[in-house]
Write a structure and sequence with these properties.
Blueprint (H helix, E strand, L loop, with lengths): L14 H9 L6 H11 L6 H13 L1 E4 L7 H12 L13 E4 L4 H8 L5 E6 L9 H13 L4 E5 L2 H5 L3 H15 L3 E5 L2 H4 L2 H13 L4 E3 L11 H18 L4 E3 L7 H14 L12 E3 L2 H14 L12
């Protein structure tokens, strides 16, 4: 019988208690984790199952533009693509969300109104997270006021790596409170956490603080989503629900560019967390170029011909 989050109240009562809890989590067998991720990546998915997986992957994409050169026109074009990814085939699923900086959230919200596609906005001094808490909260407040349905926050990796877990926990709590009805995705930047043990600790820390999703990365560093770190986070959400009854989503982001890659991640979800996570309410891909390859593969399955990149819009 699952316990509730109140059972972990003692674990979050102080920095010392939280450190004791997080360092008391089972250590990660790195060799075993990577071997399992590699083995699951060899699963063959073909024909009808492949068509289903491609459509599912499209529906799970947070179509993303996070560049200093972003303009309202680019965001509106991306929103149009999210709503109607393939103008030649209206059976193509819509993406889950469009993800933008807070100053573009209002533009995205206006372009997506009534479509069912969510507006996601990065916040909390993305991507470095190096700002005072009141600045981070203001960032979140602005994004929500502008129409963001989802907030993607970055943790303070410096505080986490220094063992200041309670500071990280309290910042997530404060951001969660500011989100209101918006769902919160907590980004760990796994490439900077150095060890699998740290990724497991960050996963539990984020979930204890109320994350609706845990997310691998910003896409702005050298190492982003990998099958192994995503597998580890999937194990964490599975175990967390088993103990608390609370389900938390997972979002790998950065470096997932092909249909083959996306399908490998869906196999990880199915074989690790289970079918309950095979839905865009609980699993997302943070991506910009992935959608184009999925559309090309989808066209090939339906027509027998590989149309090539000139037949899909450039993001």
């Amino acid at each position: 019988m699952p316990t509730t989050l109140s059972a972990f109240a003692d674990a979050t009562a102080s920095d010392r208690a939280l450190r004791r809890f997080l360092h008391g989590l089972p250590g990660v067998d790195a060799v075993g984790l990577e071997a399992r991720a590699a083995a699951l990546g060899t699963r063959s998915v073909k024909t009808t199952a492949k068509a289903y997986a491609i459509d599912l992957a499209i529906s799970m994409i947070d179509l993303t533009t996070l560049e200093g050169a972003d303009t309202p026109g680019k965001v509106r074009a991306l929103a149009a693509k999210a709503v109607n990814p393939d103008p030649t085939d209206r059976t193509t699923p819509r993406t889950a969300a469009v993800c933008v900086y807070p100053d573009m959230a209002a533009t995205a919200a206006a372009a997506l109104a009534g479509s069912g596609v969510k507006v996601a906005s990065v916040a909390t001094a993305f991507p470095a997270g190096r700002a005072a808490l009141d600045v981070k909260i203001a960032d979140v407040r602005d994004a929500v006021a502008a129409g963001a349905d989802e907030i993607d926050m970055v943790i303070d990796r410096g505080a986490f790596l220094a063992g200041r877990y309670l500071k990280v926990y309290e910042e997530i709590l404060a951001v969660k409170a500011e989100c209101g009805s918006a769902r919160l995705k907590v980004i760990f930047e796994t490439g900077e956490l150095s060890t699998y043990d740290n990724i497991r600790r960050a996963s539990w820390l984020g979930m204890l603080a109320g994350a609706d999703f845990i997310k691998t990365s910003t896409g702005k560093v050298a190492v982003n989503a990998t099958p192994a770190n995503t597998l580890l986070m999937l194990e964490a959400v599975r175990d967390f629900r088993a103990q608390t009854g609370v389900q938390v989503g997972v979002k790998p982001a950065g470096g997932i560019r092909t249909s083959k890659d996306a399908i490998k991640f869906l196999v990880l979800v199915n074989e690790t967390a289970g079918e309950d996570w095979l839905d865009n309410h609980w699993f997302r891909f943070g991506a910009s170029s992935l959608l184009n390859d999925l559309l090309m593969q989808r066209q090939k399955l339906s027509t027998g011909r590989y149309s090539g990149p000139d037949y899909v819009t450039v993001d």
